[in-house]
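Sample 1 of the test manifest.
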Amino acid sequence: MPKWVYSFGDGKAEGSAALRNLLGGKGANLAEMASLGLPVPPGFTITTELCTSYYATGKALPSTLAAEVDAGLAYIERVAAARFGAAENALLVSVRSGARASMPGMMDTVLNLGLNDETVEGMARRSGDPRFAYDSYRRFIQMFGDVVLGIEHEAFEDLLERHKEERGYVLDTDMAAEDWRLLIEAYKRMVRERLSRPFPQDVREQLDGAIRAVLDSWMNNRAITYRKLHNIPDGWGTAVTVQAMVFGNMGSDCATGVAFTRDPSTGQKAIYGEYLVNAQGEDVVAGIRTPQPLTEAARLANRGDGASLERAMPATFRELEAVFARLEGHYRDMQDIEFTVQKGKLWLLQTRTGKRTARAALKIAVDMVAEGVIGEQDAVKRIDPQALEQLLHPALDPNAPRTVIARGLPASPGAAVGRVALSADEAYDLATKGEDVILVRAETSPEDIHGMHAAKGILTSRGGMTSHAAVVARGMGRPCITGASEIRIDVEKRRFSVAGLMVNAGDMITIDGTRGEVIKGAVPTVEPSLGGDFQTLMGWADRVRTLKVRANAETPTDAQTARGFGAEGIGLCRTEHMFFDNERIVAMREMILAANRRGREAALAKLLPMQRQDFVELFRIMSGLPVTIRLLDPPLHEFLPNTDEEIAEVAKATGVRFETLRTRVAQLHESNPMLGHRGCRLGISYPEIYEMQARAIFEAAVEVGAERGGGVTLEIMIPLVATRRELDILKELVDAQASAVARTSRAKLDYIVGTMIELPRAALRAGEIAGAAQFFSFGTNDLTQTTLGLSRDDAASFLDAYERAGIFPTDPFASLDIEGVGELVRVACERGRAARPSLKLGICGEHGGDPDSIRFFHEVGLDYVSCSPYRVPVARLAAAQATLAAKAERD
Amino acid sequence: MPKWVYSFGDGKAEGSAALRNLLGGKGANLAEMASLGLPVPPGFTITTELCTSYYATGKALPSTLAAEVDAGLAYIERVAAARFGAAENALLVSVRSGARASMPGMMDTVLNLGLNDETVEGMARRSGDPRFAYDSYRRFIQMFGDVVLGIEHEAFEDLLERHKEERGYVLDTDMAAEDWRLLIEAYKRMVRERLSRPFPQDVREQLDGAIRAVLDSWMNNRAITYRKLHNIPDGWGTAVTVQAMVFGNMGSDCATGVAFTRDPSTGQKAIYGEYLVNAQGEDVVAGIRTPQPLTEAARLANRGDGASLERAMPATFRELEAVFARLEGHYRDMQDIEFTVQKGKLWLLQTRTGKRTARAALKIAVDMVAEGVIGEQDAVKRIDPQALEQLLHPALDPNAPRTVIARGLPASPGAAVGRVALSADEAYDLATKGEDVILVRAETSPEDIHGMHAAKGILTSRGGMTSHAAVVARGMGRPCITGASEIRIDVEKRRFSVAGLMVNAGDMITIDGTRGEVIKGAVPTVEPSLGGDFQTLMGWADRVRTLKVRANAETPTDAQTARGFGAEGIGLCRTEHMFFDNERIVAMREMILAANRRGREAALAKLLPMQRQDFVELFRIMSGLPVTIRLLDPPLHEFLPNTDEEIAEVAKATGVRFETLRTRVAQLHESNPMLGHRGCRLGISYPEIYEMQARAIFEAAVEVGAERGGGVTLEIMIPLVATRRELDILKELVDAQASAVARTSRAKLDYIVGTMIELPRAALRAGEIAGAAQFFSFGTNDLTQTTLGLSRDDAASFLDAYERAGIFPTDPFASLDIEGVGELVRVACERGRAARPSLKLGICGEHGGDPDSIRFFHEVGLDYVSCSPYRVPVARLAAAQATLAAKAERD
């Protein structure tokens, strides 16, 4: 049997901060503080392993637990010099949860445990304050009743309110000792009626019940949801800390408060916190009384008229200052601390690393390096790369009121305000008139690109985190909410409804892509400003990392954004995105609908100069850096019209008969286009398409190469390769175009040819394929789809159920499935490099911007990751952290 | 440098039959016959390696070849006592192709090479027959002109016809020596005009040209197509055999003929063949003169009025009989022999293993075992499993005329005759009226099942060898042609057109699923009869093989067929096929459209007794054998109506509002259903579906188990698993149903739970998954789709181009992609068995009936393969051959 119980207090402890996984954050830090000699009420922590065992055995408790709890209680009794359940000077305890990762407010707590009809009288006698004693007892019954006995909170509140009404009281402070005593009787009667048994008077029975209740609260709905949102595994379990109570509400020499050692919002180095005189911890949070600031400076800044702790209890404040400095120095990070002053004596109830905004995190990390508390690499490790993205997008004014009318998936962060447009054309038209637009669609398709680009934000009622809308929006840096399923769009009536509310096209709405909230009306936004701390930290990250970071970009705007964010090249230029423009789509359709190769070539001849010009612009922006260009990838029917009306339009524009066109559209239809005639399969069937693209690329390279500043390093990428032979055929085609252009222009072309690895077969045959490829770029989106047999367009309908059932720990399209897809990536790297040691390896799926995935990519030895422009800083930081993590593992 | 040239003749040879890969079939057997001391004209063979080198080096010939050819010529000259290009007694040679595998008529041949203006005169003098000499020369010019110089055959024929017309001749025999001489001049003039150079007189230049022409013919379109059809790799190359000419046309003591040592059509043990007196080999084939039978018996049987060789040249016949016996005994197989008699002397020009019908192959193999020539295992090795399937399906009368109006893919073998029906309902109605029906559709869907079942055969204008139509048809044993793209179906006008010809609904057509031919009108068919030879051979196969063979079946008919063909259980019972029945589809739709779990359960309660009854019938038929039942697999929208009309119908039947229904149908639509909400994902989302199915299975098992004869061994299979957790959840669900049924019925249930391995992730995580699975069944159809990123419904549009470009050696849905998909199968077997040594391993994809794939499955150690009922004998034989091949490799 493992050891289930770890005690602490009186300047020593069985645990320490290092045992966080076993004792939870709270228990570990209490132990650590006790060992540091800080004033911590004595207590013991039941381990997270007990919780895991509890759930593994159908909620059975191991036979050895009771004896260990007895020993723990005896320890507390000894240190606190009080006895649990004793008539006089009874020991009271708190019972709290504490997981490895902080889950504030998600699980249950019981305070004042150990009070019963007898001990309350002893407390009244000893404190000389019967009102305090009875108030504590009724609080305990209320809390225990709610948490352990399952009687809803309101039932107790009702009795209290009734009592106050009957006596004409307004505030709780109107309640005298006798009032509380009478209320206690009423509470106990109610409990007996509800449960057909009395409120437990046996203190040990109380404790066992509270321990079980805290364990049970690990699996309440709030906790489950919180864990899902924060990627906390169910298997971690919670610890339970039982600790002697101290009281901040025993008179005016008592107080309770919470503090941060630095400002968690701005990062400023100043004690930040609040306290209340004569109060219990919960009162600070409850908001009935207004807490006062700790420091005089804060009081003056807020023009407060109360007294700061600094003024009210100067000795305690100085002690607290010293404790804060000690804890920050010890933990080498900003701390979030709970304390109580009982009759002039300071007790520390909790310390933990304080949560902070991304902005504060940056400032604190950079400041601490300047202060010599941590090193640059520690600073790099400290910042959550995901949080960094907040800083790059405009955000809603946090102080503005918001009327949330619907929720969806936070598909692309940031906020946007604009008028509702229900089609891409409408969005485009409105935007042309200078209006800000939110494009609202059931879902988007490549035909909507112009509208998405024109819009400030995108909202869809269907689709997941990796639907077309989500991926494109992230790429464009547009805030986006997908899968807002409460929204019913009625395109004909030009409006959408949500829970009875009608929103018309043209109405103002706001979307918060970071939270997934749809808000009625315009909420004011604040623009991001990237301060010096950001640049300093990114500089440190760049010094550490070995993985290069590129961007997925094809438009000049995206490329410029990417370069501004420090992208070291383009890792994925999706040439198909260049074909959706109004003028081009006509030529594209001509090409697709042509009866033969000659017809296709004629249409391609029209596309060539446009495509070349795109590349010229891109190459100028990316001058001096590598640019990876993927040849046409999506199935051709994506470019075709769908409705009869659209077909008629195209028929008119191209001069092709309506019937012919409709037949061809039907012929091009595929049951599973993701697995259909796309990628290099198009290049094999219609070599002229790839020939045109290769020619446009090389001609653009020659043009830009001749300019001052020089050109780019070209990497031509063949998509969806499954066999070596496909690559052989298409590499020959590309080389032939390069030779032709080089001959005509007498220029030297600097290019390599490589392939996407996005099919399991390609990963398995990587050794063979590397014989023909100078680089691999892992297309982890498609590789995830094929390896898991999971369409990202369709997965939304069950992915949620899957995450809830614990089947996928996280969305495999957001964070790489390292066990499955990752093995194929690893195998492909090994086999590819074995066959060609100089093989360049990169990744250009959505996972290129995900920190967990980046860590894996670093481990398997990729040369670079490529992600959407706004994710570039995220990736730079994550890459640096990956290097540090790998180093730490080696050491 | 390798040795390029191997000589033979005069009782000895540098090569032998063992060098078939190097010398081609013809070259190797000529060498072998020479070594046996049989009368073979001397010659030499240029190796297939030369051919490979020729294509690898851009058609360059190695520098050492010329000298080796010189040496080879010198050898022939010595043995034949004649000189190449000599004015008197000139050596003439033939130049022929010869690949490892026979490719009859696909490549080029040049005869009589060595004739020129000078040597022809010597030949005339020596033979005393100027007409013969000139005729030979003009044949040579004609053949050389066509094959080597690229002048079309017709140009020569024209000149010959013109000459005959001018002189009023009718037959070639009317041509006198002078006529041939004049024609030769005309030929030479024409060649000079066409090519601006004379017809080559240098015999060595002739020879070099002919060698190159034969090498080039390896890559002519006919040869490429033939190789593709017969899975012969391009890389094998052809050998070139240069051999002294002998003449069967030098007078009435000359003859030429072809013979089989046994009847290739029936397998009867009797010399079978034809000959012509005073003729060259090509005349036998050309059909201008009617060849005579070799034996008297054959002449009498055919009531022929000519003379058999047995009568006309009794000594030669006896010599031939002895040679035949010698060769058959030597090769231990039926031989196909070409011979020539020149002035009474017998020469053998070729021997090879004779092609034969499946029926003959069976008889010959079984007879030869009885004769003690070969052993049982040799007999098992001899039969092509693929060919066996011919015997099981009805076939068209080979003697009946046929008007082929279109061609498609031979998707399911056998022939069928019936009236055209253009919808499943129409097919069903017509069939109910007792008509034979051919269902003709653009493509089929699961909704067409009743029509497909009702039809005698299926024809689609779209789809590939593994489209829905193809797979279902093979499963049902219905002949089927898919992808007959010339056919344009006009459902409204109730007809289809093909190349201008209209075929109306109700018209009679015939389809030959073995050849992929659509035939106008009714061609008579012949029913298969499986004789004793078949049973004998299958018995030997069963004694050898270790791999078990099961069938994919769900209907009683299929199950009975399968058991009749020797299936050792059902490896895949697709429960969804049970839901398409008219009555059931309504309940199924109710279930899908239900607003909540309660509604679904109500609908499922209606389906339960029907599903149970299906299983009862199935279990009775399969009594004593294992039955693997796959729980619901396809996406739910497959069961839903598509058109507004159909939706209205369902709305009426189910009482659900039309709008609601249409919305739900749209909601269920998926972009890539193959990768969507299907398989076990349905079981996770809607556990009540799987609960109903499990209950139906167990209740049926109890019912049948109580009957005399007992029940089956149940294997419950969860489809599309990607993670261990999915299986854990669903296994628990199945076990719960089993417990419930066992409790109620007090019966003991014999079942195991396992999973399909059909996603790359499942294969990779097989170790983990095996922890929860008692068996794996590889779903190689889906595993191929996901590993290659290739939808079988859509691949038809480019798969052909892919095979032509040499990207896929064969259709990966027909024969397993061993390098890619195979690695995943192998990995899954290893990891699965490592985690659970008792793990049962099987395969239930289409590949389960493919001999090449079966060999691989045997190698990786599967326990069984499961295939469509008509493929069961094929698989039994292929499994036996796999065992023998593996044994041969070990030895």
